[in-house]
Every structure is written in structure tokens, then in C-alpha cells.
Amino acid sequence: MLLSDFDYELPSESIAQQPTDQRDQSRLMAIPRLTGEIEHRRFSQLTDYLSAGDLLVLNDTRVIPARLRGHKESGGKIEILLDRPAGQVWQEDGYFYQRFYCLVHSSRPLKPGKKALLAGGGQAILETATKTNKQVLLKLPIPTQDYLEKNGEVPLPAYIKRRQDDPQPQDRDRYQTVYAKDPGAIAAPTAGLHFTTQMLKQLERKGIELAYLTLHVGPGTFLPVRTQNVAEHVMHSERYAISRQAARAVEQARKENRRVVAVGTTVVRTLEAAWKDSRIVAGRAETDLFIRPGYEFKVVDALLTNFHLPKSTLLMLVCAFSTQARVISAYKVAVANNYRFFSYGDATFLF
Predict the structure, then answer these.
(1) Does 280 map to a domain?
(2) Are 264 and 59 in contact (CB under 8 A)?
(3) Are residues 311 and 280 in the same domain?
(4) Which residue among 24, 79, 141, 205 has its CA within the 20 to 30 Å range from the CA of 234?
(5) In CATH, what number is assigned to the domain containing residue 202?
(6) Last residue of a domain, one of 92, 119, 152
(7) Do 138 and 280 fall into the same domain?
């Protein structure tokens, strides 16, 4: 498989820059997995495609305000995007210290040992820097989570062009699922952004079972594929957690031949990575599973997901769940019918 096999033409005006006024009023493209007519609906009509007994699995990760801005001691601007903790918090001399893996952007590279001065009296000292990751030590006047909530920004994707000069308070709410619980992601599991609390209750009343797991979305999900041969791409690891209750729910659904419906690619990767010897292994772990065409799915029967970037690993996963020709054809239909793409965009349901 070549990277060009997963390309499609997307006008810039198709990329959603704002969320819809109401979460469940985004559009829904219902795509029979292999054959059949595509249907154009509203997300609130998803219930028409779900049946009593279906198990809907959602990712309850919570996006943290992980983008920090500041300046180097020399005066140049700097931007730090925290990925995941690299150690525990400790307190010393009235400050809180914690190490993080991160991405750093500045006009000139920040060298190890050098300091960045952040808003609210925070500091970031670059400790190590390699081609694959950078590690900073945060020195903060208040505990990390409190500091990020007060001084950090919602890390909206780069294709939302207003992010640099127009951060909006609504992003704190709308770039977060209504069931977000466990802080740790630097990007939202966007398939879940369309659900309202009322809609989830409606699904339960219909007899649809809900289960939750956690995968903290990291930058590896969005890093571009730079190899022409898709098989040579290496995924970055992401942290996940599955409770015994969620594991039992999935195992029982498989045993009773009930559908397991994944809300988002993050749920697909987590479930498929945790499936060992006909069971879900509960607990905390990491996965670098790269799902692409040719992959044999073991757990997931239906997939709810947004439209994804050309040549991305997320698009490859969706193509693996259906076929490359089917998915690219559906995306072309979506463009022709003015669907909104990516994080704040519309949804697809492959069933």
C-alpha cells in the first residue's frame, strides 16, 4: 500500500472551523460497510441504526489545556504542547515540579538546560531533546492541573486556523465530550463530541448498553505519515485503561453475538489491542497498534467516527474497517454534499 492510495481532494472550505450550535444537530452519513446505499441523516437520528442489545463503547478521556505559551530567556516566543507525564509531582522551595514529554515550537530550537518563562509565573526547563521526543521539567507556583486550567489553552488542531489569535471560551466546553472524565488527552475523541446527555439517556431507554474505557489521545495520532510505503510507518504509543466492568460487558456482548459499536477510532484501537485469547485484558497499558487495510478485526462490529485527514493513520483505520475504495468514494460524496470535515465536523457510521 502506498501513501497516495489514501489521498483525496478536500476544499479548505469543507474544514469545520466552529462547532454546530447544538451537538446532535451535526450531520450523519450512514455507510453500509461494504455494499448498499449511503444515507444522509442528522446525528440525532443515530438511534435509527442502533438496536436493543447493542453495546456502545465510548472513550471518557478528558482533554487538558495542554498548550502553554511563553518566551525564552532570550526573548523569542515559544509554544509547548504537553503530551504525557514522565514522572510524579514533587514540591520544593514553594514550587511544584513535574516532568512531561512534549512538543516544542519556537523560531530557534530550545537547547537542553535552557528555560522558557510561561504565563502565571510558570517555567519550563528543557532537559532532553531527541528526534522522537522532548522532555521538559515544569516548575509551577500551583499544582499542575490547577496551573493548566488557569493558564493553558485548549490544544485545537492546526487546521482550525483561528486557534492562534482567536481562542474562544466555547472551546473549553465544545472540544470535550459530555461524558469526559479522566484528564490526560491533548486532543478530543471527536466522534463523541456529537452526543448530548439527553441522547445517551435515550439510547439506554431503547435498551442499548453503554460502556466506557479511556485512551489518552497523544500527538502520535496526528503525526503525518512520512513513508511512501504505509507498512513502514511506526505509531507512537498512547496510554489506555479498561475497567473490569467494561471488559466483562464487551466479552458478554461477543459471547451473545450482540454488536459492539465503537465510538471513534480510539475505542477501536483500544479494544483491538486489549483483545487476547478471546477476552479483553482489563487494566492500564499502552498501545502502538497500527490498523490499516488487511487487518482482521476481532472485536468491533460497527464504527462511528468523524471524517479524517487525507493520508492519515485514522483514515487508514476506517479503510481497513470497510475498503479503501468504498471509503474514498463516500468521502467524495461527502464533499459534493457539503459535509463538514474533521474535529468540529460531521460524523459517519459504518455498519
Answers:
(1) yes
(2) yes
(3) yes
(4) 79
(5) 3.40.1780.10
(6) 152
(7) no
Cα–Cα dist 210/200, whole Å: 8
Residues linked to residue 220 through DSSP beta bridges, in sequence order:
none
312: cell is 492519515
Q: What are the beta bridge partners of residue 41?
A: 28
Q: Is the pLDDT of residue 163 over 60?
A: no
Distances 345 to 25, 63, 125, 189, 239 between C-alpha atoms, Å: 11, 18, 37, 12, 26
Per-residue pLDDT tens digits for 49-92: 999 999 999 999 999 999 999 999 989 999 999 999 999 999 99
pLDDT, tens digit (0-9, with 9 covering 90-100), for 177-216: 999 999 999 999 999 999 999 999 999 999 999 999 999 9
CA dihedral 263, 148, 78, 86 (to 10 degrees): -70
Crossing angle of helices 313-321 and 265-274, in 10° steps, is 70
d(CA 342, CA 163): 15
What is the distance between the alpha carbons of residues 113 and 292, in angstroms, rounded to a whole number? 40
Least Cα distance to 138 among 186, 100, 84, 180 occurs for 100
Q: How many CB atoms lie within 10 A of CB 165?
A: 6
Domain with 256, as residue range(s), is: 3-63+172-350
